[in-house]
Structures are given as C-alpha cells and as structure tokens.
Amino acid sequence: MSWLCAAGQRPKTDAELHTLLGAALDPHACYGGEALALPVAQSADMLGIAANQLAGAMMAAGVRPAALACRVVGEQEFNGVVKDEGSKAQATILGLREHLTRLVRREAASAWAQGASVWVVCDRLGGRTSYAAVLAAILPEFGVSIVEQTEARSIYVLKDGRGREMGVTFKVEGEKSQLPVALASMTAKYVRELAMARFNRHWRGLDASLKPTAGYAQDARRWLADAKTLLTREDRQALVGRA
User: How far apart are alpha carbons 170 and 4 in whole angstroms?
Assistant: First the structure.
C-alpha cells in the first residue's frame, strides 16, 4: 500500500486495489460481496507517513516505480492449467509469460525508445535452473543466449533483429538482493491475504463457528474437514487445487 501511495495512488478498498493492479479474483461467490476497507493493519495517517518516507527515500536514490501489477491465478484456472499441461509449474510460467509480454510492449519499449537498458530479475521458479527454452517460447522474436546457469542463479541475454536487448536473471531468494522482487512478493501476498479475508467472511457468514483459514496446505485440509457440511460437490471442484 505504501508504494502505491508514494506513487500517488491510494485505494480505499480492496476492489480499488484490484483495479489498480489488474488483479481479478476467481469468480466463485466466496470471493464476492462488499469491498473490504483499506488499509487493514494500520491507520490512514500511519500509511501516509510511511508513504512520505518512502517517497523521500526514492527521490534521494533517484528511482521511481514505473508500474505495479498482480496476476491472480484462481483455483479454477490453476486446475485447468494443471489438467492441460500436467504440471503446476506451468501456472507460474503463465504469469511469467504475461509479465514479459507486457514488459516488452510497454515499460521495456519505453526504455528502449529512450536508449536505456532493460534487465529483468525474477525469483527462481521452484527448483528449475534452465530457462532458455521457456524464454524462447515466450518471446520467439528474440534470440536467447545463456550467460550462466547455476544453482544460485540463471542469467540470459535476449536480442532481436531490431537491435533491442534485454537481460533476464532468475535468482534463488531474489527478494533478499532485489527490491523489485521483494515488492512483487509483498504485493502478491497482500492480494492473497485480502482474498482469503473475503473467503473466510463468506463461509463464516454461513457458519460463525467455522475457524478461519489462511489457505495453506495443512490448515486447508483442516478447514475442508470442518466445512464439509457447507461445501457442495461443485464448491470442492472449484476451490480445491489439483496439486
């Protein structure tokens, strides 16, 4: 939230946040209902103070946020990807494809037009160390050169026939050394937590004694057992991940 506020955007509800980030939730009814008021964990005044401090630090460092977005892969879409592709890793690659495609068409295109260089840093996707074929499939107009592929990081340079060049790095625990990676992680987790707040509100509206869940594997199994009398067969098919 403080990053958006520092950039002049202050969403007052989670619905406004979703619009700013392009984050469309799964269409199941449990993610519907009234919008949640923001901020959640601090006051509007405290958020303003944090945003001002952040804006000052960015100005001093000579940096600014060019764009902030979040792609939500809901349960139904996730299950569809796993069914069609045979691997949950493809759901992550789906997000990578959309991110790089948007980058080339918008932010990177603007940077290239100004003669600036472009470098993309991503957290490593699971245990994968080789991304050359993935990048070539996502951006077929670019040739992909491997600079390094190790357990710690994988580095590539992409060039096309128009003279455009882009570096791409996948790093283990990238959020520890790259602020954009950390910001991306925080944004995704915040959107997820807000979605789970909607989820729990919906089901506790049907049974107030139902203990909320954060949705992670072990507690999700507990929650499914607790909510078994509320869930229809269609609910289970729509809300339970295949992997």
Answer: 25
pTM of the model: 0.90
With respect to residue 71, please indicate whether it lies within any of the assigned structural domains.
yes
In a domain, 211, yes or no: no
Distances (CA, A) of 106 to 71, 112, 141, 190: 16, 10, 16, 25
Q: Both tokens of residue 161?
A: 């026939």
Q: Do the domain assignments include residue 98?
A: yes
Task: For the beta carbon of residue 225, count every other beta carbon within 10 angstroms.
Answer: 8
Residue for token pair 């804006």: 55
Phi, psi for residue 30 in degrees, rounded to 5: -70, -15
Domain boundaries, position 163:
2-180
Per-residue pLDDT reduced to its tens digit, 51-96? 999 999 999 998 888 889 999 999 989 988 888 887 888 888 988 9
- pLDDT, position 1: 86
Neighbours of 221 (CB within 10 A): 12
Per-residue pLDDT, averaged over 87-109, amounts to 89
Asked if the structure places residue 241 within a domain, the reply is no
CA-nearest of 138, 215, 124 to 171 is 124
Domain count, the chain: 1
Q: Are 183 and 3 in contact (CB under 8 A)?
A: yes
> How big is the chain by its Cα radius of gyration, in Å?
20
**Model confidence pLDDT, tens digit, residues 1-14:** 888 888 889 999 99
